């Protein structure tokens, strides 16, 4: 019985020794794989800025600003960006994180302000904006949502107030205003509605006063972006309606309506905000910087 136990113990020791030998034999392979991963992906000088036999970028690449600060870092495959790329402002903060796929043709990007806040998120196809893009102010609040196709606005473009309600909605086709245009007060009530055809205001327009959302304070019409026909103004001071007929932006037979120049100036002053909207239809557009995901990249 005792001899049997001794034989069993020896057998176990032999098995353990064989297993330990196998583990030890595998350690160099594990280390080698780890070192290979470090060599390819870590920021080592030997791994940087390599090209293949055809002269195409491969592996880890980076570029620096003239002052030596990092401009971008990412991997290339057969000359095309592949996977995660990071782009930096000249102050070392992140400018853009892009994830490339489909041979570098598609990139999902997130841009940042220099202070670290998100500026915009969206998709590039062949370096052109595509699908839905979201834009944020420096306090990370959504302020614009746009639709793109092949780098051009296509569909609705919506601007938001800081509280999240819609400020303005425009419709685009081939990067030109085509379709309804509405503006809203911050409380959600309609402020202005008209229509665009090939970038020009066309057809009826209604403008509302914030205190009376049920009745337009101004009604008129456009032909080829110019005021034409009767324009009706509601004077809330004396509760009257004043009408002026326009032709190509100018009043017709001004004396017929009994309006002196002083009266016309007064009406214009009372509707100063309205007139400003008419003269500057894009005044609420935010001046976003259009950035390329490969800015300084290739």
Summarize the structure in words:
The chain is elongated and about 85 Å long. It has a 20-stranded antiparallel β-sheet that branches. 19% of the residues lie in helices and 47% in strands. The chain has 2 domains: 48-140, Histone H3 K4-specific methyltransferase SET7/9 N-terminal domain (Single Sheet), CATH 2.20.110.10; 158-284, Outer Surface Protein A, domain 3, CATH 3.90.930. It has 298 residues and is α+β, with helices and mostly antiparallel strands. The chain is built from 3 helices and 20 strands.
Could you give the order of the helices and strands? Answer: HEEEEEEEEEEEEEEEEEEEEHH
Runs in which pLDDT lies below 50 for 5 or more consecutive residues are 1-45, 281-298
Mean pLDDT: 78
- Would you count the extended β strands for me? 20
For the sheet with most strands, the description reads: 20 strands, antiparallel
- Fraction in helix: 10-25%
Q: With helices defined by DSSP (H or I, 4 residues minimum), what is the helix count?
A: 3
What is the CATH domain class of the largest domain? Answer: Alpha Beta
Bin the strand percentage: over 45%
Rg, alpha carbons: 33 Å
Please give the alpha-carbon distance between the first and last residues: 77 Å
